[in-house]
Design goal:
By secondary structure, the protein is of the alpha/beta class. It has nine helices and nine strands. The protein has one domain: NAD(P)-binding Rossmann-like Domain (Rossmann fold). The strands form two sheets. Strands 3-2-1-4-5-6-9 form a seven-stranded parallel sheet, with helices on both faces.
Length: about 250
């Protein structure tokens, strides 16, 4: 029997790397996508050695037309059983201080890329009546959190709708809404992690375990840990001005 295959974007570090590890431990072959070819090959070799799965790589910059087209073509041509839309980054300055091209690239990576890859995945999942799409959102999507929160709000809304719309056709769609996670995400933003209380930080292995459990249960949204469920609940009751002042800068 052919093992299932998972394609993961942003697969060389952090949440993406942990999804690759845990899916490999469940017997999934892998297609790992990221910009750094050397890191991809290193990650693929390590996962093959540890779990005995087939791990191929695709070095592509999803913020370029050619890079996105290459990944989209791979999704269309292969029987991808699990798609993990994980690639992302944050912008530290407020909207008006960022070059508009940076904001457009940020929006494209968080909205256009998962939209196109999800659409491509559905083209070969729906005829088989099976497949899973996991979109990495954020608790910021529940808050007034600039363009990052707005983009992640799209991911949450789309995933909720898709979960309802496609579940009867054998497709599971789940948005994962982390908060602060120990990954390279904040280092790349040059954000001081010490300003965030230690109890607010999650480990990627815990986050992914919870996410995969929630996916298996058919949940539209996975929010890891009681503390972040409380944060999300709080956003529905606290004044929006107060929520915006304490805007979360997590995943």
């Amino acid at each position: 029997m052919t093992p299932p295959t998972a394609l993961i974007t942003g697969a060389t570090a952090g949440i993406g790397a942990e999804f690759a590890r845990q899916l490999a431990s469940q017997g999934h072959d892998l297609v790992l996508v990221a910009r750094d070819a050397d890191r991809l090959e290193e990650r693929a070799a390590a996962l093959t050695s540890e779990f005995g799965v087939a791990a191929s790589t695709l070095a592509a910059d999803l913020m370029t037309v050619d890079g996105l087209a290459a990944v989209e073509a791979r999704v269309l041509e292969a029987d991808i059983d699990v798609l993990v839309n994980n690639a992302g980054f944050g912008l530290v300055p407020p909207f008006d201080e960022n070059p508009i091209d940076d904001e457009v690239g940020h929006l494209n990576l968080h909205v256009l890329v998962p939209m196109r890859l999800s659409h491509a995945a559905l083209q070969q999942m729906l005829p088989r009546r099976s497949g899973t799409i996991i979109n990495i959102a954020s608790v910021a999507g529940f808050t007034p959190r600039g363009t990052y929160g707005a983009a992640k709000a799209w991911v949450l809304s789309f995933s909720r709708w898709a979960n309802i719309h496609y579940r009867d056709r054998g497709i599971r769609v789940t948005a994962v809404a982390p908060g602060f996670v120990h990954t390279e995400f904040h280092e790349r933003m040059d954000v001081d992690k010490s300003t965030v209380p230690s109890f607010m930080w999650l480990n990627a292995d815990f986050l992914v375990r919870v996410a995969l459990r929630d996916v298996a249960r058919g949940k539209a949204v996975s929010i890891p840990s009681a503390r972040y469920k409380f944060v999300v609940w709080l956003t529905t009751w606290a004044p929006q001005r107060l929520i915006a002042k304490g805007a979360l800068r997590g995943r």
